[in-house]
Amino acid sequence: MNPYLAGVLLGLVLLASFLVLGAGLGASSGLARIGAFAEGCILPGHVRSSAYFGKWAENPLGYYLVFMLAGTFLGGLVSALLAGRVRVGVERGAAFPARRRLLLALAGGVIAGFASRLAQGCTSGQALTGSALLLSGSLVFLLCVFAGGYAAAWFVRRQWHD
Amino acid sequence: MIETLYGLDRLGTPAAFFLALLLGGAFGFALERAGFGSSRRLAGIFYFRDMAVLKVMFTAVVTAMLGLSYLQSLGWIGPEQVYLMPSIYGAQAIGGLVFGVGFVMSGWCPGTAAVGAASGKLDALVFLGGAVLGGVVFNELFAVVAPLYAWGDGGVSMAFAALGMSRAAFAFLFVLAAVGCFWGAEFVERRVAGTGEFLGGRFLKAFSLVLVVLAAGLFIFPAGGAGPGAPAPSPAAAAPGGESALLRAVEAAADHVEPEDLADRMMRGEEDLLVVDVRPAEEFAGFRLRGAVNVPIAELAAFLEPRRNRGTVVLYSNGMVHPAQARDSLARAGHDNVYILTDGLEGFAERCLKPASLRAGSVPPAEAARIDAWRGYFSRPDAPPARPVRVEAPRAGLPGLVSAEWLAANLGRKGLKVVDLREQKDYNGAHVPGALSLHPESLRGNAGGLPSMLLPAGLLAAKFSLMGIQPVDTVVFVHSGDRLRDSTLAAMACERLGHERYAILDGGWEAWQAAQLPADARLPEVRRLSYPAPAEPDRFTVDYRVVLAELGGGTVILDVRPADFFSGRKRDEARGGHIPGAVNRDFALDLAPKGSAGSLKPVGELAAAYAALVPSNDAPVIVHCRTGHQASQTWFVLRRVLGYRDVRWYDAGWTEWAARPELPVE
After folding, report:
1. ipTM score here?
2. Residue-wise pLDDT tens for chain A (162 aa)?
3. Which residues does chain A have within 8 Å of residue B38's beta carbon, measured at their own beta carbons?
4. Distance from CA of B448 to the nearest CA of A (A)
5. Cβ contact, residue pair A75, B28, below 8 Å
6. Which of B87, B403, B413, B442 is deepest in the core (most CB within 10 A)?
7. Domains by residue range for chain B, with CATH
8. Is B294 in a helix, a strand, or coil?
């Protein structure tokens, strides 16, 4: 799809979210809530008394962004099925071993998950939503994401070498 | 008027969950269509192979920004209906840098990984697991990272306001930057990967043009009309459940703070505690709780808007009735962090400040020590506010006139700059505490051979820089006695710089003295800053060519010199008389008689006088005098006090007109 038209579509979805929910899009909150839920299943007392997850401990999954994350998965699935793009596999450069690619994905996930809690949002909740609202801190976040990404890009370039 | 689930406080309901699921579905669909179910594609931007991330993201941001700006400007949705996240600069800068590293390592971010997992990408699934784990790690390390998490808290901050720009101007530049990035991205793709299929094509040209035109269209709406940050808490936003929740809170006294508790929290210097005194400014000036700020009840909603549901706000007055009513009104408008002080200031005095020796019965020693500590802390006079608080908006709005009481109540607050325009020896004798001295004549000079012209914007900006004034500051001018025109000349300097956050002290220095407000002779501490000069010339200054061209048309030429000069009986210039067709109203006729409270005659009187000279509020008017000084006062009266919309200023005035023999004289 033409990336500009895809961008317009995404922008209209974001606008609809502003008008209906009164809040933008988000993804990382849903993941953090799942983390709180999972940790609560193993150590309920600990989660209830912890400073960050504690305030969600009653019902960590009872939050609109958890449902939005589920929706994102389902919407992606519908689109990918319609376009015949569902293929199970590990995406990587042909010359890079799959196991190491998965290790990088895991480490990147931990880092991104941690950072999105620190910044109170990720590419969806801060960079996309906050920038569209012209919020100062969100624009700072957006610029810093690219700064961080470009600074580290050279070190992980081999995973895409064919 | 659109009411959102956030505005109705119903984001936690099953209906909201269902709608979030649907919106998430649309989000996932759009991401997948954009090709973001692929980590190779997402990572492409970091190697300049495939700039799709930049194109899609920037387009989406600009689309939603323009859409929301139009809807808000048209008044279809109120600014309070959308949740605005606070800017916590340190946390967001560090968080962004770290996030970027995680992004490039994995090739995923949370939203796209959900779509990637749906497309069967195992690396996306692993990323999601890692991100969940990252949240757990954050929770476990929270004690360590908490200071970073709150580092650089700037509250809700709109980028355009932080930069001192209008919303429309910022949005326009933002869209230009986006379009520049699109073209840059296509160019980079062509150079690095041989793609960049849209570069120079008709589609990208048309798309760029549409975005720029839409952004430029925002300029037709009045600035500050309905952007976020404009205070407009609507009582209608109360949910049906909200009223009963409110009453339950009242019944349980959950809306109260006990004096002892408040005293301890204030003494501890609790970070997020804001104590607001809602009594009249005079009573506040007499006695107040140390660290409290003074805000009239009518201005509370606007004042507290940036602190909506952030930290704790405690209202107090002498008793409890007024703060309680204000609190309930704020609670209906969605502020759930506002409390009232039990028994008000009277209760506080009785329960915290009354010496142990005067109390009935014996006071245990521990209690007596606590009372002594409170008395020591709260009896210290003139304690400065514990935290800087921004200046409140005067009732009549800015630019405009403010009373001495308003200035006294806002003195010392962040963002207030007082500029004293009196003679330097008067300033050296006594001035409003913290005021800067400025000679009004230093704002003028010879320009293009014309004497006493208001300096160009670049030089004015340099002066403002030297005085440490920033575009976000509220500047208050103080003149002496009947020299209101000194303040209005300074006002013209602000207008030329596009600095609309200014006010003139009504009645000048004499009003300050008459109210027996504090004064001192100390020089202020000033940090030199850089004030940006606008690139465009102002729109209200005209030269003789414009005046000549509009002679005999519908424009009212208003000559504000004394009548003898208008008639030509007296003259200081090469020729006497006036511009053909000009009407005369001596600027001094607008001033209130000596000894009265304000600088100007009552607004009704002024409105009637000018209605007789100018056909309507929209009629074009050009004001002039001899050098531009007196005319600046009439300009201010017409434009900023009476609200005439098309008022221009012939700064060079009679000095120039009389000296150019080719110009007609009557």
Report:
1. 0.98
2. 899 999 999 999 999 999 999 999 999 999 999 999 999 999 988 888 888 898 887 789 999 999 999 999 999 999 999 999 999 999 999 999 999 999 999 999 999 999 999 999 999 999 999 999 999 999 999 999 999 999 999 999 999 998
3. 91
4. 41
5. yes
6. B87
7. 14-220 (no CATH), 238-378 (3.40.250.10), 400-514 (3.40.250.10), 541-659 (3.40.250.10)
8. strand
